[in-house]
Amino acid sequence: MIIFALTGYLAAYRANNELTLAGENLSKALNLCQQINMVDHEADILLDVARLRYAQGDFKDAQEKASEALMITERSGYVLQGADVNLFLAQYALEQEKDKTKAKEYAESALKLAYCDGPPYYYKVAYEEAERMLKMMNEE
Length: 140
Known about the structure:
Elements: H1 2-8, H2 10-15, H3 19-35, H4 39-55, H5 59-76, H6 79-97, H7 100-115, H8 124-139
Helix pairs in contact: 1-3, 3-4, 4-5, 4-6, 5-6, 6-7, 6-8, 7-8
């Protein structure tokens, strides 16, 4: 429950531009997850840290945290979290690396992971975001 409380403050801190406090709480949550081997939440927290670092302009650390989260999702089989991480990395590849090919690969992976058993049993938000990204990249 402590982990949920720590990560729950993230949106409020970001809305109030208190990014340092957000980072502190995410670090505490991540440390707790690692101490008690709570892998099912670790990837989500790492993705939140990546998003925070991105917002702070620390793009290298953002990419590293997202890559770490991706490894966890692949190793653990958490496909829904994997879809979210792939979407973040696709956006990162587009904006920071200007690598459309890499971005497309991440977006296609996100689409595949979000598909699950297909509609109506799919991760709709991630699936539609991946479709939107792929469509946008194909139009350019």
